[in-house]
User: What shape does this take?
Amino acid sequence: MRTLIRHGHCVLPAGIVEVDLLLENGRILGIDPPAGTAADETIDATGLHVLPGVIDDQVHFRDPGLTHKEDLRTGSLACAKGGVTTFLEMPNTTPATITQQALEEKLALAAGKCAVNYGFYIGATPENAGELKQAHRTPGIKIFIGSSTGNLLVDDQQALEQIFAETTLPICAHCEDEATVRANRERLAGGTSFADHSKIRDHAAAVISTRRAIDLAHRHQHRFHVLHVSTADELEFIRDHRGLITAEVCPHHLLFQIDDYERLGSLVQMNPSIKTAKDNAALWEALRDGTIQVLATDHAPHTLEEKQQPWPKAPSGLPAVENSLALMLDASRRGECTLEQIVQRMCTAPARVWDIVNKGQIVEGYDADLVLVDLEREHTIRNQEQVTKCGWSPWDGVTLTGCPVRTIVGGQTVYQNQDGRNVFDEAFRGTEAVYDHGRGGHWAE
Assistant: This one.
């Protein structure tokens, strides 16, 4: 099937150009095809911008084991609504994805459920280095250096040295120093309110752990990605990329700060915790200047009933995957970033960091994963309209300007906003992301 997208303002690697796109057999066949080119379907994109599909490299879709919060079907539909055409999901499901067999089982589960493209990390434990050395069909290894349960916590130095020294896949990590967190909790006698979450999981916890992980990466010359950077202090040693280090930030660490606990309580309780307005400003600047390469969501849903438990029973985490692109488009309108920077951080850079083949840019021969956005459309985020199974958003009631109106995966329209209604192709299934970890030089700057 051939699809012609006409009159859209396309965000190409060389800039924004009003140009037609021709799609065929799931690929971008042509940019600016000759007049009169035949197509089976024509999409009029007049007044819209055409972006590469967003790649969210950090989501938790709770499948298997905790599917009352989210599952691969509902999470992937939320992706489609939000303009996310590929997601990479974390291993802390039940059971955890810590073996190749568990990874294969999750891939098979996704093949029957997912409305967009997918990939899954393999999780590190103190004892599974052998599995990690043999792992394939995965973007990389996830280490929880702090903030995990069960056997996914890897805080022992010898185990960390072994993983960085003996494995070859890219590594990413949740960095919060467990000893610091425990000491803070004891000092505060467990805390008395949600605001104490940021005092327990404080700046020092993030800084100590991130510095520790980067030291491991440099000594062992191992590609390393710092997940959800939350402090200005971490930026000072993240800047030293050495072709090895990349980093990401999440919308909640850009847009929320500690004063928001009074208004939102547990709804903004996250690990790492939200920090200060000064940290917000530094993270925005790092996102603009390239110190931080990736923007991802860390979509971590819990039911509203779970989140409404009193301190300290409420779990950490919030949903964001269906609103992240709209939040950034609105931020662009306010001057926080440019549309080109959004595409670089949410589309191009994640593909490059994780060696995802043929995604992240509008280039002839690349996969036809695209999102059409209306930069002028106002809309209000409402809990009752969320597609995610948990059914709420910390941005409930916030009015944004700019949103996705059509999402295309593999040349197929999987989501449209038709006069305010969400319309999905319920029959479509995405495909497994493909990686080329052997190409090298992923971040040479």
